[in-house]
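Dear colleague,

Thank you for sharing your sequence with our group. We've completed the structure prediction you requested, and as agreed, I am returning the results in plain text so they can be pasted directly into your records. Please verify that the sequence below matches your submission; if there's any discrepancy, let me know and we will rerun it promptly.
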Amino acid sequence: MYRGAIVAASVLGFRQVFTGRSLPAGTGAPGGPLGGYTEPLSRVLLDWTPEDIQAAIITAESGLLRLAADLCTAMRGDDKIPSTLKSRILAVQGAPLTFEAAAAGRLRRRALKSLQAEEDFFDMLPEAELEQLRTWRLLLGVGLGELVWTEPDPADPTGEAVIARIRNGRNVPRLKVWDPRHLRKDMASGRWWVRTLTGVEVEVRPGDGQWILLTAGGNRPWLNGLWRGLADLWLAKVFARIDWARQSEKYANGIICFESPDGSDEDERKKFGLDLRDIGKEGVVVAPAGYKGKILELAGRAWETYDAQWTKSNLGFSVAVLGGDLASESKKSAGTGASLQGEVRDDLKKADAAQDETDIRAQVLCPWSRVSFGDPDLAPWPKWNVDPAEDRQALATTWNMTAQALKTSKEAGYALDWQIVREETGLPITGLLADVALPAPTPVQALAAAPNLATAAELLLAPLTTAELRALARMPANDARASFLGMFNGYREARASRPMRRAQGAPERLAA
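Please find the predicted structure tokens below.
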């Protein structure tokens, strides 16, 4: 049997041996070589100028992405840009991931179990590779990856033979991210091509089971990449760093200056100048007689320009990638549920998640479902939950204000629809509480709480008659209070059951 043979698992479950150099159409990548294609070696331009950035923009307009991709690679060497990109990428990729079964199909539940419970998804799309692919799309506007359906045969000591990647009885591919510098688009036909190690160009057909092409949308997706807006800021920061370091090297220890005396010999001055030039770090020289030395220190504040240039560039990176300078704002919500997701604007997270869900299903899960279950439409939908984290402090404040409003409305006599209040505020109201009968006060408690004897009698649920009010009104205050207590002592219950016969206005007359 040919050493490059491949063993593949068919949909029906039996094993077949293919001896050709290419994968058959039913095993994933149509017409691809065994082991996948090999990416060419790359050599990136190290020193960039404004003219180089313009050249990258011009060549990208014609569909050639080599210079634009090299520029993105250089920018990813910055101290700020990679972490900012990671915040944007992981705001989606680090969110909780669930899967939704296909709308129809006899095997749709089985496909869902294979993808989620048996972890085919994470075997196909390792976190590090998926992060790289999504970073290229965000930065350049185009991300290129290859699905490799084979792996080296562990039984072959030469490492040349490959076998199908069988996981739980299924042929499961694995993502390999390519550098987009090898990618170009034919603007006349709209077709994408990638150059391999052999120098041959291969057409990229997204969704064919071999290639993944994540784009930022449009006929020229590189226009929607962030690189065009970040390039000038990045180069300004690079120049600020270089100039600042050069200034620090030149003026940190000051400049040694010597003044020669009148009548000094020119050859002597030249020789002494050469000695100063070759003095080296922390060197010592002996000046000729009469020479006066001093150290010139930098008195300007040019470093403030470099610092401002550096700071503004970093601020521009945050605004462009995260949708705002939210890194400092998110610290205000520490401990309230805010996390990495809080650094990225909500609409950007939702847009990124929606695009990832659609592209990954169409270009990765559908080919996997076709190979594993014979029908690409059985592929489940990935769902990233990127809803904003709950701010518990704000929630508590809202609920407290709602409770106060409900209390005030009830005391004012207004009737509110508690179901609408629950829907609008999220306050978990389940209904209205029945009025609870409070125990009646004692006569002493009633006297202490009421402004007069008539009101105290009403608090005891036994209003006084007109005759009783007149009798109490004729007594001194202390005698009236003692008589009042005697009237209610022992027979309050009987008085409480007596119907009210008090004349209108009696309490007011008694209070007067």
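Summary note from our side: Residues 392-425 form one domain.

Kind regards,
the structure core
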